[in-house]
């Protein structure tokens, strides 16, 4: 009986430990320093790392493969099914912004438009409706 209870306790403890990393958002929150003063309103939560944007991107994409990715001199943009993770140079480190895809799409469309970063996170592809849509 004691062995069964111990096994159940280990199972519950393991689920609790690993459940925090079941999304890119949770992964970032568990691995990087929270920077509330760098938040963008209530839309984007900010985190920081002393590592370069490329290194942070490799860590995040190693844990969570993005559905879309774009990089230029302004930063590295990772698109997931519901969230975006934007990595911007911050001195010798990185500013990491995690935001719902529905708000980040409009914020970064001018930068990532045409790069494979499609979709607004609301179930739509970003195309308009009407005659000929989806062609």
Can you tell me the residue ranges where pLDDT is under 50 for at least 5 consecutive residues? Answer: 4-20, 120-135
Query: How would the global form be characterised?
Result: globular
Backbone CA Rg: 18 Å
pLDDT averaged residue by residue:
79
Work out the oligomeric state of the chains in this entry.
Answer: single chain
Determine the strand fraction and express it as a percent band. Answer: 25-35%
State the helix count: 4
Which bin fits the share of residues in helices? 25-40%
Which descriptors would you attach to this protein?
single chain, 135 residues, alpha+beta, six-stranded antiparallel beta sheet, 4 helices, 6 strands, globular, disordered C terminus
Short description:
The chain has 135 residues and is an alpha+beta fold. The protein is built from 4 helices and 6 strands. β4 and β5 form a beta hairpin.
């Amino acid at each position: 009986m004691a062995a069964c209870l111990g096994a159940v306790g280990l199972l519950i403890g393991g689920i609790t430990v690993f459940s925090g990393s079941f999304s890119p958002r949770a992964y970032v929150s568990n691995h990087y320093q929270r920077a509330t003063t760098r938040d963008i309103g209530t839309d984007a939560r900010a985190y920081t790392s002393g590592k370069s944007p490329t290194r942070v991107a490799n860590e995040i994409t190693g844990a969570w493969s993005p559905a879309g990715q774009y990089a230029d001199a302004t930063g590295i943009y990772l698109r997931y099914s519901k969230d975006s993770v934007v990595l911007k140079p911050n001195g010798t480190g990185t500013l990491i912004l995690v935001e719902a895809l529905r708000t980040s799409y409009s914020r970064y469309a001018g930068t990532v438009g045409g790069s494979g970063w499609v979709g607004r996170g609301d179930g739509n592809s970003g195309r308009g409706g009407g005659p000929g849509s989806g062609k």
